[in-house]
Amino acid sequence: MPDGIHKMKAIVLSSSIRLLCTHSCLVLLLLFSAAARPAGMQALGAESYAGIEKTYAGHSFLVALWSLDCPPCIKEFEMLERVRRAYPDFKIVLINTDGVEASEEAEALLQQFELNSADTWIFASEETEKLRFSIDRQWYGELPRSYLYRDNARQSHSGLIDEAQLRNWLDSLTAR
User: Which of 56, 121, 132, 172 could form a disulfide with 44 if both were Cys (CB 3.0 to 4.6 A apart)?
Assistant: First the structure.
């Protein structure tokens, strides 16, 4: 075969290999990024909380921040499960602070308390301080932490939410 044909075959083969490698890398990148995202929970980035507030603007809702290694948070789940059954239309947003690495365990716990149908989020693998700051500049990471929204005003609370107070607050919403 003439030398030019060999060079042409080599160029075509080289281009094909490069194209195959590029496509393979793209497929792997998509697979890894899908694996890094929680299946049912959304990853909370620095801009996400503002989006949550915008989504629920004009509505009354609760945001509860929690962690897998926070016993009071788990106790609060028991109460939220009861409240959710009594007030099925009340919007609850649950944000796990453990990071996407804990998404499977966090989702299993939410399912155990039948809270997986709530709007659920988990801290993305960004700086925790930056995420906390995007939620509340006055919050230093204590858990459980919650925010009650009514008429676009926010009331913050550290520690367990009192069930009777939450029910009274919910009843006051329907009394208007």
Answer: 121
